[in-house]
Predict the 3D structure of the following.
Amino acid sequence: MSGMLELLFIPFLACLILTGIHCYLGIHIVSRGVIFVDLSLAQVAALGSTVALLAGYELNSTEAYLISLGFTFLGAGVFALGQTRDKSVPQEAIIGIVYAVSSAAAILVLDKAPHGEEAIKAMLVGSILFATWRQIAEISIIYLAVAVLHFLLRKKFLLISMNPDLARQSGLWIRFWDFIFYLTFGFVVTSSVHIAGVLLVFSYLVVPAVCAMFFVRGVAHRLLVGWGLGFIASVLGLYASARWDFPTGASVVTMFGVVLVVCAAVKGVVGLTTGLPQKA
């Protein structure tokens, strides 16, 4: 038992850190209605990693991270420019196109890269079980810097996410602040994908935020609920991985799915209960 706890301690810390930053960003993303922007941007980051792999760098190397970050910045620019008042082309369409093209390009690159199949698996489900103290320190510094910046700019970011029409009326330069938002978002996603993979990053971003929105209003309350649910899903997923020898990333992603189903069921029951006619 002590050996299992020792093995899972660093992955557990990584999961807690991922929960902290991604739940907050997820509230922005879900409120903006661009649910798959994380999945798309994560795939762009993965494309950068495949290019680095083809160039002869290891996936976990500094060079691969910087190349991946550069690709992510390009994606952030595309998403910021895609946010317009003209709704004839929804931003979700642009996000979907970026995802499809970057996924196809990654497959083409990996077809020519050594150990391409292993690289695809690593990018999808990550290798969080083998996270190191150095990686924990690196992502902690990056996420703390992003958190401080978002705290300082919270009024602009929250206004654009929660009430974009009022943001335009107040004279905010939407595209510029969107670019800053997606730029910081890109830092987080690129760092997270390298340690956790595309699917786990998407789960941490969307599921806690959606579940919290089922039950509470207000950013602070949603953060608290989302952090709690992210903690529960992480603990259960890591335990299932260790107990039954499942892949760690896939176990945590699946547990997030279970948490979402349970929360949706509870929401439905509560809705039916409160909707019943009251006795006179």
About this structure: The CA atoms of residues 93 and 102 lie 14 Å apart. The longest helix spans residues 2-32. The mean pLDDT is 82. The chain has one domain: 2-200.
